[in-house]
Amino acid sequence: MLLRTASTLLAFTLTTSSTLAFQAGEKAAMAGRITELKDSIAANKARLAKYQWTETTTVLFRGQARKTETSTCHYGPDGKVVKLPNGPAAPALGGGQMQQQRGGLRGRIIEKKTEEMKDYGERLKSLIGEYVPPNRDKVQDAFQAGNASIAPAAGTTSMTLANYYKSGDKMIFAFDPTAKKIRSLNVDTYLDNPQTDIVTLAVNFASLPDGTNYAASTNLKAESKEIEIRTANSNYQKITP
Questions:
Q1: What is the reported pTM?
Q2: CB contact at 8 A, 67 and 59
């Protein structure tokens, strides 16, 4: 009886030790990948600080383009992207007709709705800035809070971060561990209400000739409002010192 009990305790101890060792190894691997992701974000931000580029943003409502605008962008001294509009925004589709229809009560209702949608669109664009480009400190915070997980996926590592910017949000990176670059990023978040105001964001990354990684395109959708914001970054040029 004592021998059986001792054998059982030994087996339990060995199993527990193996489990703990596996978990420790898994956590170490995750920490390594998170470090690579943070280093990649920091390195690319430093490289992009030497560039200026053109950002083209198109706002769509119910599948139709309502506004397109371009801006010249660069990083400011505070490390944030500075956007300088390139002339007036292109008029919305059907904008002339809408101006003609404005008048009286109906016109005021249309004007109010237009302003509400404009404000909502600006808030959505600000939301994009909280996720793109990714912030290495927020990545570390999510990892330390136990809100990170990794999994291999077709030549890349899928890295998921929860509660990155808002409670309940989720970011999924497709990270190339060989090239040490982000290939794509998908975000599930919300603007006001996590149940009825859901926002999704898909980002594709590309590389410049010198290897600098950048967000080539983003596609944000706010389905409850039937709004979509597409952004493309191009014409990267080094800033003359």
A1: 0.78
A2: yes
Beta bridge partners of 173: 159, 185
Q: What is the pLDDT of residues 67-94, one digit of tens each?
A: 899 999 999 999 889 999 997 655 544 4
Residue 182's φ and ψ, nearest 5 degrees, are: -80, 130
User: Is 3.30.2310 the CATH number for 3-238?
Assistant: no
Q: Which pLDDT tens digit goes with each residue over 89-141?
A: 555 444 444 444 555 666 666 666 677 777 888 888 889 889 998 999 999 99
Supply the DSSP symbol for 87.
Answer: S
Contact 63, 84 (CB under 8 A): no
Query: Phi and psi at residue 222, in whole multiples of 5°?
Result: -120, 90
First to last CA, the chain: 82
**Tokens in use for 158?**
């899928």
